[in-house]
Amino acid sequence: MIHDHIKVWNNVLEQVKGSLNVEDFMRWFIPLKPLRMEGSVLIVEAPNEFLVERLEENYIDILRKGIRSEIGEKGQLKYQYIKTNNVAKNSFQSPVRVSHPSRHTTSTPVSAYNPFVMPGLKKMDIDSNLNPNYTFENFIEGSCNRLARQAGIQIGKDPGKNFNPLILYGNVGLGKTHLIQAIGNSIAKNFPEKTVIYTSAEKFTHQFINSVKDNRTNEFSQFYNGLDALIIDDIQFLAGKSGTQEIFFHLFNHLHQKGKQIILTSDRAPHELKDIEDRLVNRFKWGLSTDLTAPDYETRMAIIIAKMEDRGIKIPEKIIDFICLNIKNNIRELEGIITSLIAQSTINQRKLDIELAQEVIKSYTSKANHELTPDEILEFVCTESHVSAALVKGKSRKGPVAQARHLSIYFIKKHLSHLTLKEIGEAFGGKDHSTILHSIKAVDIQMETDKIFRDKVEDFDKKLGKTLRIK
């Protein structure tokens, strides 16, 4: 009996469609394209191994039933991967595997795909989103960061071979972002043919949400699967985002198996991450995890001297010593104090002395020592939104109240990332974790589709930062 490959595939898809939700059907089956029949073997074109692996892990029973009902007990499915960079297509055969595209769309090869036309991805800079000013040369090494910097230098010379993944963790202001971008710049310089991308976990999540909304998860996966080095900042922001964690899990597997370099930062050690799946945490432990700690006195001195040399400015040694003795835990703060000190002296025509240094340090430390609380963030959002905090904590679903609730939860999760979803829920009258997740996702999605709302969120964030400094 001769089977028509398109008809067979359409019939299989109809059977599968009834067993899945629309999102999963569109994400995992639509990207496949029926090519031909070879006896009792149906050959379909798949965009990448990632999608095939996903089908095999989760939908093999559905596929088995569909393919055998159309072709018979001897029915088989064979995948043929899209040709990339003039390399012959690879094939993968399964006696029962099936992937489906009821809409016979032509998948786009990785080599021809331009991620910058995709909402979200188009925001990324063509130059890998790396800051060229972040280099190893201007990153001061000390006992607080020596292991991390030396590991980074080795990765820059031979990416993907050692320390893969590399995870840097520690408090804010200790140079994590500078160091991982220095590694990225080193890889790009030593291996100009390699594709290096730096992004934040927050941006990665927004891009994935857009790809789901636009039915373009296939292109999203193709783009990231094609990288040689992936650098993601603040991985803790994936907490509670199960869909993004799922796609990142498979991306991580793909890149690691291909020997591609993965570099991540976090505000805490991998084993301390909350609301991150165990299977991801276990993979984070495959490589090197090292913390960046507060710089010692000598390192703080070296940082200040280097900053002064860069600006061609001289500060009396006794003032440098005074600053180093009083600012101990935050490099970013140290740099900010130097900038403020110079500005105060230049603009206000004041002498660079201990008295001025004391004023500047007092201003910084009084702000830095206060960490926002959930109630303070809630009160701020309610004041700006002109709604009652009591209503926001209650069950009201009126538009302005619901939006203020979503925004409050969003900012609490963003700025107080150490809080669990349960702890955030308790601040809102005992709401469960699903309600908290819904609020965060609602803000994420609306920011991507509503420019006015996005501007409002960014304005709130700036005002919030000026009201009380967040650690």
Strand order of the largest sheet: 6-7-8-5-9
Helix and strand run: HHEEHHEEHEHEHHEHEHEHHHHHHHHHH
The multimeric state of the shown protein is single chain
Distance between the ends: 70 Å
How does the helix and strand content classify structurally?
alpha/beta
Fraction in beta strands: 5-15%
CATH class of the largest domain: Alpha Beta
How many E strands? 9
What's the number of helices? Answer: 20
Helix content: 40-55%
> CATH homologous superfamily of the largest domain?
P-loop containing nucleotide triphosphate hydrolases
Output mean pLDDT.
79
- The radius of gyration over CA amounts to 26 Å
What is the approximate shape? globular
Reported CATH architecture of the largest domain: 3-Layer(aba) Sandwich
Largest sheet: 5 strands, parallel
Name the poorly predicted regions: 84-126
Give structural attributes.
single chain; 471 residues; alpha/beta; GMP Synthetase, Chain A, domain 3; Helicase, Ruva Protein, domain 3; 4 domains; five-stranded parallel β-sheet; four-stranded mixed β-sheet; 10% strand
